[in-house]
């Protein structure tokens, strides 16, 4: 049976003018997690997770998954709502079998597995084996471990290139041709000179025919899909995107995040979500038009009083800007702008994206915590307000991935993967262009940067 075309196929088809599917999902088809919760299913049926498996049949066959990285994105943390293992458990229920957890930090990996085995989801993890590397897994796996998907949540400096040790995607596809991939954002954080390698990798992945999704989960928000629906149904052309991302810096205690040498800086590491969302509405960016300015750590206005890390331990040239403001032209002619701020204290970020088209303002507010969409339409000066209770884009992106992997019948109704590797490369490229434009514009003499 032939595999349904990947989103990349569809994107390239739509670029060539013969596209059959849109890169969006009817928002009413984004099913909340509790509607599928196996925990509630088990409770209702008065069965344990294992006994539902034992009851067998109706829930289908095991679904083998390999997790790469045993960190926060995979198993959750206090810093945010991300936690892929939790979404896989809810999507697949007792079918989920995590056959391997690959992480050089073996103790951390073992500890998170032990925690899982102490809960009702034990059957997904009781046979999980920990490996330091992919090669170790390949050497030691048995036939019954054959994975249907790899979920890659290792740090981006170890992936997104074609170089040995930093090419996990290529290694996975070499050993498991056609296996599905879920890759976290950003797709890399190496020097900007390596961006071309990322595009080569995107071609390699698309040529392989593998289902591949990149973790720009904001695309899966119901509010975002409603914005897309309004634009499509009214045949609108986006004129401008205006994005603002103000981070609550007091809550960021990870030293790497404050060090450009380790995280590539706040635009590449964090602002990437909003650069990607801007591109989702505005389309491809003419990278040569990107311009930007920054407020730097050594300028008077850039002094922060509530930093949780010791910035003096970071070399001056690697310290991050407090504000970065960029503008660019999309290839459509539309204009994009993005301001990233390291300015707020407390815990919650303040983030907004406005999309303008003839007669319309679509304003998305607070997409991370409690998304609200304000819409102004032709014929009225008033704003409509739409709220989206219990929307979980992390669940929707995993749910759509699994549906695509299992959709061997090529059901035209199956929701589309919304971010391919190639698309994610373009967002990565935009973030680097913004960082470099802001660094070029600093116009400071090196000696004005205070020494450590
Ligand atoms: N979509 C989101 O909102 C979101 C949220 C959090 C993190 N992320 C992304 O997820 C990725 C991981 O972030 P995190 O917060 O989980 O980091 P983390 O530091 O908590 O965990 C990373 C884990 O990967 C392991 N690791 C290191 N090298 C490895 C290798 N070569 N192979 C396998 N594992 C390796 C580390 O030992 C660690 O356990 C980053 O790209 C980050 O940007 C995305």
UniProtKB/TrEMBL annotation:
Signal peptide coordinates: none
Molecular function per GO: nucleotide binding
Ranges where the Gfo/Idh/MocA-like oxidoreductase N-terminal domain occurs: 63-216
A Pfam family reported for this protein in Swiss-Prot or TrEMBL: ox_reductase_C
Compositional bias (Low complexity): 13-22
Region (Disordered): 1-28
Domain Oxidoreductase putative C-terminal: 219-360
Organism domain of life: Eukaryota
Protein name: Oxidoreductase C terminal-domain-containing protein
Source organism per UniProt: Hermanssonia centrifuga
Upper taxonomic lineage: Eukaryota, Fungi, Dikarya, Basidiomycota, Agaricomycotina
